[in-house]
Amino acid sequence: MTRKLNVVYCGTPDFSVPTLEELYNNPSINLVGVITMPDRPAGRGQELKAPPVAEFAKTHNIPLYQVENINREPEVLEALEKLNLDFILVLAFAQFLGSRILNMPRLGCFNIHTSILPKYRGAAPIQYALLNGDTSTGVSIQKMVKEMDAGDLVHFDEVAITDDETGESLYNKLKLKAAVSTKALIEKVLEDKLVYTPQDPAGVSFAPTIKKEDGFLNFKESDYKKIKNQIKAFDPWPGTYCFLNNLRLKVFEIEKLPRSLKPGETSIDHGLLSIGLNDGSAIRLSRVQLEGKKVCSDTELLNGLKNKGGEIILNP
């Protein structure tokens, strides 16, 4: 009988849990440890809350290491070195691995990345795939090296992006696909069929961390496709917004109108809040939320503002 593979898993958010479940339930895996971030204050009471991966490990009695920086924990590293590891698997861990731990397992460390590498190396591959209007993305598993997301590929699975895809729906698709890809990786290891394919340097692109201000909708400098992709990519976080009379107006849905407006020109008629884009088209901001108010339609918003008088200005 083939011995089980000794594996340690590194991950932190809920995105990492289905893959952890796959490792835990796979009969060929001896899951000898889970490494994750420490508990953090959360909620209104700011009480300490364990990461989802830690919760799973505790529930299933898997040896758990919660560390701020694994590379600076000599006692944990010494404990891991005694586990006769076959490989370490990493997904959304939020820490870099140093040389000592990269060289520790027999097969090395593998990282799961949510794009088809070398496209979109970095922290936000899901959002960038949507921002750029891609029709497909995927999950890559690469052997980790000291350079970010630059290791040889050992497995990938493609995932289609539908027209109505949002950041949230694509996140959920890829979360489940990562677990499927992990099962395939385990089979390749067991059958001694791992093939290490270097990434094509000509195809490298990057997906840096998204900031809140990236959600600003610049109507004067954007066409319909760009605005639409921005809304889909940043749903639910960081969301998209503009300013109405100097108040922040969150924008959840838009609708293309059969008319033209100049770039940045505002139109308020028939209960619609419309604005022109840089391609001459016009959109209606059909579902919005003004700062301090509830989510509503543009018609409801305009009705609420009507009695206050004065001009309504978008992005003054």
Kindly describe this structure:
By secondary structure, the chain is α/β, with parallel strands linked by helices. It has two domains: 5-207, Rossmann fold (3-Layer(aba) Sandwich); 212-315, Methionyl-tRNA Fmet Formyltransferase, Chain A, domain 2 (Roll), CATH 3.10.25. The chain has helices spanning 17-25, 52-59, 74-81, 99-102, 125-131, 167-190, 224-233, 298-306; strands at 5-11, 29-36, 40-42, 47-49, 64-66, 87-91, 109-113, 136-143, 153-160, 241-244, 247-260, 266-269, 272-276, 281-290, 295-297. The mean pLDDT is 95.
Name the shape in a single word.
Answer: elongated
Biggest sheet details: 7 strands, mixed
- The level 1 CATH classification of the largest domain is Alpha Beta
* Sequence of strands across the biggest β-sheet: 5-2-1-6-7-8-9
Euclidean distance between termini CA atoms: 71 Å
What percentage of residues falls in helices of 4 or more residues? 25-40%
Uncertain parts? none
How many structural domains can be distinguished in the coordinates?
2
What is the β-strand count? 15
How many helices in DSSP terms? 8
Mean pLDDT: 95
The SSE string, one letter per element, is EHEEEHEHEHEHEEHHEEEEEEH
Any idea of the CATH topology of the largest domain? Answer: Rossmann fold
Assembly type:
single chain
